[in-house]
Amino acid sequence: MPHPEIRTGPVVAIDRGITHLLADSDGELVANPQRLEQSLKKLRRAQRVVARRKKGSRRRERAKIRVAKIHRKIRRQRTHVLHELSSRYAKSHGVVVLENLNIAGMVKGTRPPYRGRRMGHLLHDAPLQAGGHGGQLVEVPAHYSSQTCPACDVVDAASRDGERFCCVACGHTAHADLNAAIVLLSRRNGGGAGRGGFPDVRGPAKRQRSGLQSG
What we know:
The protein is an alpha/beta fold. The protein has five helices and eight strands, in the order E-E-E-H-H-E-H-H-E-E-E-E-H.
């Protein structure tokens, strides 16, 4: 088959999340199906059955097969969602910008619970693969993207409040995940004069203490 024609646009940046599977710079939010989360109760029950069965017995082997089938179903559900999304973005956009995340380190470093869930499971449940239809996949640094204001470049953890982003400096407001996607897009475009062509990441803005100072 002939090589597909190289496309340079349109460009979209994607922020991968937990509550939402992804948010893109075009303003779209895709809910996280959380297939693993939905199957955890059934999976734990099946694993407890395996633990109760006598080692080497046929009943234990049958119980282990049931556990394997649950894992296989989760894997197939994930793959189906990923193929749908990657195909859609590969066909509709010439350049897909992703944040360069250390997923393995994030999963290892998480501690339960996260809003009643184990964050590591949700991170594993929200990967994104990109296909190629003559397009390009570009990775940009992910640091502080959820705390950065695309309007004034101020970085402050106080600007992020759950799913809401409100810049403490200029008052810019947006959905936090959509805001991060726009920041990633600006980094791909080389905005700012920071190291490596990316905007400078300034430390969190200091807050003045209320009340009169003694002196």
